Design the sequence.
């Protein structure tokens, strides 16, 4: 506590002179008087300047014998930012008090004492240099922000505010309720998406940064948003305490915060109140009917549903099977729980189309669950889109479009709905619309590798090679362990750009086998590589064993101008797929979509046989 004792005699933060005993802060903007607890928070942060202090540490130090909510600490931080900015006559004092979601708070500034300077009241000799350094740092930050983050740096009057809901902290005694705190945050996120006046980042992206040590500006830059909503959930018996705070990422300051102590039965109302307060703080309004139409009959069913959601999104080995067990348990407790049926359809879909191939048993269950969800709640967008997804992959395109259109009318901003819209647009030949939709999806779910790869594919098909390369490079940044499919996507782009040296460096990273031989065979036009490319093509012919690898073989033929060989491969595959039972028609759907989107197969497009190849059943 020696540092605390020294600080009690007074200290400086920039141009501010802080006198803890008098409870005052004096600067160019005048003198302000701080509440004792606010001053206490300031002294604690100053004593550990540039070090993160957790909320629990601050609460235990400042309220050691009193039970208080985190809202008390949040209000102190808010007052510190506001009053010190007033005393300093400069908004930069707000940004010095940093909120680090899931970690705590930090004073990011140099703190000097009378002991450090021999006279705390003497004019600070380093003042002009301090100001120059601060201005230079601010200028660099502004330039960097303008280049890397086109969000808070430029908030035009017509710009729709953007917000990301971060996963709420599990503050329960056993720290074993993460599924529950995640569920609370996801419900609030879903409620906010019902506003046409907000851009809300998808769960996939906003929850993916859970374990990264990032501060507010870094998170906002990664997600390209103006505002962050963070919070915590403490669940004990039949009581819950939910704390939420809305942070302006541009100033790193709180716009709104509140703590709710309620019974579990009030959870849905609390979630609605938080979403409504956030929308109001951002001058937006919410649509929809609220929690009354979303609450299941049994809270136990809802908890099982949240457990299923947790495993469905986590996706480590065995998690999809675990999610199925929880979804099915939720339905046993509440057979009319439409969202659980829709979620179950999504889990069945992943089991039906996994790395081992197609499983008709799970596909049939997917269809049954999706149809049940729609019957129970025709106004549930996720139910409509899950049924459309099943029908699309099983050759029922006409019915799929009808359900998709309903889903789009209900929730046109949902990434899953938008992905279906992009697929439909491509199927009817509206490639411009499909590309625009994929761009919108990536904007809403910027950290999703799957969506970014699809966007890159459509950019490539539109001959926007540099943009496609940028998206694939970004994908590798998001997921350095991306598989060989992504690597050969980038090899395709670099080869078409004639950047053979860069392509060669990537090929060297591929393991021996089909993927490497495909990439090498593409180097047919690279200087001095023809013999090696021919040898790779010879090996590739013997390595094609399924519909996916035959499409890649046809791409090599078409790229080399061997159109007859390309058609022979594709027509043979189309005939085999046409003869398959309807339960496997998803493979035909995949085949048509894959060849239609391939930039390398474009030399075949003017041939009448091409139209026959991409004609969809029905």
Sequence:
């Amino acid at each position: 506590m020696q540092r605390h004792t020294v600080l009690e005699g007074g200290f400086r933060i920039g141009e501010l002179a802080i006198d803890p005993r008098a409870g005052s802060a004096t600067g160019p903007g005048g003198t302000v008087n701080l509440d004792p607890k606010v001053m206490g928070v300031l002294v604690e942060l100053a004593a550990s300047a540039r070090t993160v202090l957790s909320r629990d540490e601050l609460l235990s130090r400042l309220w050691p014998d009193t039970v208080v909510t985190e809202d008390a600490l949040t209000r102190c931080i808010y007052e510190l930012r506001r009053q010190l900015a007033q005393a300093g006559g400069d908004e930069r004092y707000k940004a010095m008090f940093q909120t680090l979601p899931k970690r705590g708070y930090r004073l990011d500034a140099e703190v000097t004492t009378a002991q450090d300077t021999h006279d705390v009241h003497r004019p600070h000799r380093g003042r002009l240099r301090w100001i120059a350094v601060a201005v230079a740092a601010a200028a660099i930050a502004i330039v960097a922000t303008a280049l890397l983050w086109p969000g808070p740096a430029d908030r035009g009057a017509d710009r729709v505010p953007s917000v990301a809901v971060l996963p709420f902290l599990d503050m329960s005694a056993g720290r074993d309720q993460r599924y529950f705190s995640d569920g609370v945050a996801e419900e609030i996120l879903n409620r906010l998406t019902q506003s046409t006046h907000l851009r809300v980042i998808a769960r996939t992206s906003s929850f993916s940064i859970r374990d990264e040590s990032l501060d507010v500006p870094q998170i906002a830059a990664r997600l390209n948003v103006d505002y962050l909503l963070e919070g915590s959930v403490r669940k004990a018996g039949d009581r819950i305490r939910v704390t939420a705070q809305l942070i302006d990422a541009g100033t790193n300051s709180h716009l709104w915060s509140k703590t709710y102590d309620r019974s579990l039965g009030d959870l849905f109302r609390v979630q609605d109140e938080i979403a409504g307060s956030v929308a109001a703080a951002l001058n937006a309004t919410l649509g929809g009917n609220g929690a009354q139409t979303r609450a299941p009959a049994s809270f136990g069913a809802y908890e099982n549903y949240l457990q299923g959601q947790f495993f469905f999104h986590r996706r480590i080995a065995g998690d999809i099977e675990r999610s199925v067990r929880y979804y099915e348990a939720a339905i046993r407790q509440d057979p009319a729980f439409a969202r659980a049926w829709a979620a179950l359809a999504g889990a069945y879909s992943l089991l039906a189309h996994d790395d081992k191939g197609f499983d008709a048993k799970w596909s049939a269950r997917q269809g049954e669950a999706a149809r049940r969800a729609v019957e129970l709640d025709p106004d549930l967008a996720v139910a409509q889109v899950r049924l459309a997804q099943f029908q699309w992959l099983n050759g029922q395109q006409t019915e799929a479009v009808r359900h998709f259109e309903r889903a789009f009318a209900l929730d046109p901003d949902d990434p899953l709905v938008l992905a279906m819209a992009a697929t439909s647009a491509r199927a009817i030949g509206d490639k411009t619309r499909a590309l625009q939709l994929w761009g919108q999806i990536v904007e809403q779910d910027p950290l999703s590798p799957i969506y970014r790869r699809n966007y890159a594919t459509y950019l490539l098909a539109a001959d926007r090679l540099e943009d496609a390369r940028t998206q694939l490079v970004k994908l590798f940044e998001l997921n350095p362990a991306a598989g060989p499919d992504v690597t050969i996507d980038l090899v395709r782009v670099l080869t078409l750009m004639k950047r053979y040296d860069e392509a060669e460096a990537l090929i060297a990273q591929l393991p021996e086998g089909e993927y490497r031989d495909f990439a090498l065979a593409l180097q047919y036009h690279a200087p001095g590589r023809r013999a090696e490319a021919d040898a790779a093509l010879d090996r590739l012919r013997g390595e094609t064993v399924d519909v996916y690898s035959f499409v890649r073989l046809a791409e090599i033929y078409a790229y080399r101008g061997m159109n007859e060989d390309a058609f022979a491969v594709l027509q043979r595959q189309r005939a085999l797929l046409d003869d398959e039972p309807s339960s496997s028609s998803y493979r035909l759907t995949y085949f048509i979509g894959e060849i239609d989107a391939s930039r390398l197969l474009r030399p075949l497009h003017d041939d009448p046989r091409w139209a026959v190849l991409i004609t969809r059943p029905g």
